[in-house]
């Protein structure tokens, strides 16, 4: 399995649900890859809820997808099925899930609004991908310089929690704006920090 960084929400909230879920699934024929696919399908359900105009349900499903996604790694360890491919497969599906949630949220937020909402949605999606990419590019650097402080503030679990809270509150556009600002600010900080890290190698 790939090295996984667990943000604050995952450590203190999601894992309290995903770990018991993994223990239950360990008694079934379910495989970690099937759980990863299940998390993606829940994210697609989130997008469908947003498109249907049921924003609060879209937010709840986005968070549920995050929780279920946390169970696949624990299930793999419990069943002795950890593999490099499993981590790779899960990471790829996570990107599709992020796209589904943010596109659905943008559609919901843009109803009756202009191009500005879609522009912010694009910035949120681009920032989300850049957060993941910058971590992958520096994964092998000793000391894991992106795992502390503000450089770690835009982890996937945090983003999806923001999506849930904002959607339940009916604040589609402000939620997108927060994610866009947070992710791209973190990426800018990581670029600055990476420059110093690579210069010292």
Short description:
The protein has 201 residues and is an all-alpha fold. It has helices at residues 8-25, 32-51, 55-69, 71-79, 84-110, 115-137, 156-168, 172-199.
What report would you give on this structure?
- This protein has 201 residues and is mostly helical.
- Helix content is 76%, strand content 0%.
- The protein is flat.
- The model has no long low-confidence stretch (mean pLDDT 91).
- What overall geometry do the principal axes of the alpha carbons give? flat
Helical content (DSSP H or I, runs of 4+): over 70%
Please, what is the average pLDDT? 91
Distance between the termini: 27 Å
Please report the total strand number as a whole number. 0
Strand content: under 5%
Class from secondary-structure proportions: mainly alpha
Largest sheet: none
Short descriptors:
201 residues; mainly alpha
Describe the SSE topology:
Layout: H1 8-25, H2 32-51, H3 55-69, H4 71-79, H5 84-110, H6 115-137, H7 156-168, H8 172-199
């Amino acid at each position: 399995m790939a090295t996984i960084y667990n943000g604050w929400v995952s450590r203190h909230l999601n894992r309290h649900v995903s770990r018991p879920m993994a223990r239950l699934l360990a008694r079934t024929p379910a495989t970690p890859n099937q759980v990863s696919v299940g998390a993606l399908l829940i994210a697609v359900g989130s997008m469908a809820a947003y498109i249907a105009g049921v924003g609060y349900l879209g937010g709840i499903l986005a968070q549920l997808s995050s929780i279920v996604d946390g169970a696949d790694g624990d299930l793999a360890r419990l069943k002795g099925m950890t593999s490099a491919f499993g981590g790779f497969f899960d990471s790829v599906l996570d990107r599709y899930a992020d796209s589904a949630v943010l596109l659905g949220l943008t559609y919901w937020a843009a109803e009756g609004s202009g191009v500005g909402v879609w522009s912010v949605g694009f910035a949120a999606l681009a920032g989300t991908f850049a957060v993941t990419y910058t971590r992958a590019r520096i994964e092998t650097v000793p000391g894991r310089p992106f795992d502390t402080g503000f450089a770690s503030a835009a982890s996937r679990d945090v983003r999806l929690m923001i999506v849930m809270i904002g959607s339940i509150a009916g604040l589609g556009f402000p939620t997108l704006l927060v994610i866009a600002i947070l992710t791209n600010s973190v990426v800018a900080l990581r670029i600055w920090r990476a420059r110093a890290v690579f210069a010292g190698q």
